[in-house]
Input
Amino acid sequence: MVLMPPAFTAEEKARITEQLLETGGRLFTAQGLRKTSLEELMAPTGVAKSSFYVFFDSKEDLYLELMVRQSAEVKRKVIDGALLAAGSPRDGLRRFLHATLEELSANPLWRRLMTHPEEMQAVARKLDPARVTAMADNPVTALTDYLATHQDDLIPADPLVITGVLQCVLLVPMYAERLGDPVLQARIVDLLVDIVAAGLTLGRD
Output
């Protein structure tokens, strides 16, 4: 005899879904996708582990939903409020880098997502890749589109190389403790951002 998962009211489904998202965000941030178990995800809900699949198809599905929610808010801050709000590509890249570094510092889940690409690769393998890449409000896609439409304002280099240079700057927080006291760190990062933004763009502000 196969036991069917219990039926949930709409209110119960909404409540448990939010609990899973909150717990998933906390556990994925602390220990990653692979080490997080269904038992750990379901424990705060008080519902049997087998009921997880009423809410999400897999851990990867939950991870992607968290990334979708994070992406929309991050894009609003680093793309709409920084990159696109600037008066020139040079200033836009400068503001984008500062805003993204601030987000990586303040948002531990986004920092995990950005510094552990193997986890997103695992998500892409488990889920439909088109669903992963077609996320609305994806800041990575928005940055790529911006660079493509401003090629005349950028140095003649492969867009992937330019993106890679920007990503290198965003890795700085991982090694911040090696840069000395916080005041010195801030001065180093400010100068690095200015040098990179100026070096990747043509003309003046």
In short: The two ends are 72 Å apart (CA to CA). The mean pLDDT is 87. Residues 172 and 189 are 8 Å apart (CA to CA). The first helix runs from residue 10 to 35.
